[in-house]
Amino acid sequence: MPTLVIVGAQWGDEAKGKMIDVLGGQANLVVRYAGGNNAGHTVITGGKTYKFQLIPAGILHPNTVAVIGSGMVVCPEGLLDELERTQSQKSDLGTLKISSAAHVVFPYHRMLDALEEEARGENKIGTTSRGIGPAYQDKVARTGIRMGEFVEPAIFERRFAEVLAYKNRLLEMFGSKPLEFAPTFERYLKYAERLKPFVEDTEILAQDAVAAGHRVLFEGAQGTYLDLDSGTYPYVTSSHPVAGGACLGTGVGPRDINNVLGVCKAYTTRVGSGPFPTELDDEIGARIREQGQEYGTVTGRGRRCGWLDLVALRHSARLNSLSGLVVTRLDVLQGIGRLKVATGYRVDGNPVRTLPANVWDLAKVQAEYEELEGWDEDLRPCRKFEDLPSSVRHYLAFIEEYTKTPVAIVSIGPDRDETIIVRPDLIWG
After folding, report:
1. Measuring CA to CA, which residue among 185, 148, 147 is closest to residue 163?
2. CA pair distance 143, 160, nearest whole angstrom
3. Which helix (H) or strand (E) holds 260?
C-alpha cells in the first residue's frame, strides 16, 4: 500500500506545500483532507511562485489527480479564482476533482464568522473570517449544503432557501442586514454550473486507487496543534489537520495508511491567539520572521516566531504516529548564532516533560532550553546530507534523538530543488 500522509507537526505554516509538490509528482492521486481557504500552501518552482488555498499543491504535476476531499469546506468563488490564476501561470496542470460530500461556504458563513469574532471582545480566537468555522458548524448541525447538492439546481434552490431564511434571522440578531435570496442564489448558481464537471464521489476514487496499489498522497493543511480535538483548544481550527483526519476526510480506512511524514520547521511559528511556550518577542524573533519571510499566505499577517519546541514536537510525533520527520527552513537560521531548543517545561517551578492537555495549563509553562551550535554557512547549494555543515547535522541528530523519530527529508531553501531526501524508505515504503 504505497500511501503517504503529509501532516503539519506544529501550528501550521511548516512548508507542507513544498513537500507535497516535491512528492506529488511521484503520486497518482493527491487528496487534501481538511480545511478551507483559511489555509494556504506556497510552492516555488521554475522561477514561479504558486499560492494555493483550496487546490491540492500536487496539481502542478500534469499526470497527478488532485482531489478536494470530503473533509473540506469549499468557497466556490475562491476556488474558481484560484483555478483561473493557476491555469494562467501553468497550462499543463493535473486533473482536479471535488468530492460531492465536501461542504460549501456561502456569504452568510463569512458574515457570521466576522460578527462572532467581534462579539468575543478581548477573547478573540484569531479567525481569518473566511467563514470556515460557521461552515463546519453547519456540517455538524446537519444544515450544511454539500457540493453534490450545490451542483443540482433544483436541490440547491430548495436547500438554499431553507438555510438562508434561518441564517438571515441570525444576521439580524447580530444587527446585520439580511442577504437577499434572488441575487445571491443566481450568483452561486453560476458558480455551481462551472464547478459541476469537477464534482464526483471521490471516496470511491481514492479507495480504488489504494486497492490497485497506486501511490496516494494525503495532503494535510494547517497543523497538529490547530486540530479541533488535539490542538490548543479553543485556539484551533474547525477541522482535523492531524494524520487521523486523512481517514475522516477522504473515505480511506486507517489500515490503508502506509507512512506518515510530519513536517516541522527548524524553529517554531504560530498565527493568531493562544499559548506559545517558546515565543521570542525580541530581536531574534524579529530576525527569524524577516529572514524567513514569516507572513501568512492567506492573510499576510506576521507569524509569531520562537525556538524549536521539542516537547511539542515529540507529542506530535506520537499523536500522528509519524514514520519520519521533514525538517524545513534550516536556511532561515543562518547567522542567528547559538540556537536554543526547548527540551522541557516548568509549571509553578515544577518540571513538566509532557505537553499539558489543558490550554490554560500550557499558558503557564516556562520552557527549559538546551543550547546547540548554530551555523553561518549558506545551506542552499547543498544537495546531499553529507554536504551539510556538521553543526546542522548535529542539530538534526538532536531532534531525532529527542523525538525518537528519524529525519526523512530536509529542506534548505524554498525551491523544489532545494530538498535533500535522507531516508527514501520512509516515504513510500
Report:
1. 185
2. 10
3. strand 259-265
**Active site residues per annotation:** 13, 41
Per-residue pLDDT tens digits for 409-423: 999 999 888 999 999
d(CA 16, CA 95): 20
Placement of cell 440578531 in the chain: 173
Domain architecture of the chain: domains with CATH: 3-100+198-256 (3.40.440.10), 103-195 (1.10.300.10), 264-426 (3.90.170.10)
* Cell numbers given for 266: 527548524
Which amino acid is residue 352, in one-letter code?
V
Please tell me the pTM assigned to this model. Answer: 0.93
What is the C-alpha separation between 58 and 18, in angstroms, rounded? 9
What tens digit of pLDDT does each residue of 91-147 get?
A: 999 999 999 999 999 999 999 998 988 887 777 776 777 899 999 999 999 999 999
CB burial of 81-101 (b: ≥16 within 10 Å; e: otherwise) equals ebbeebeeeeeebbebbbbbb
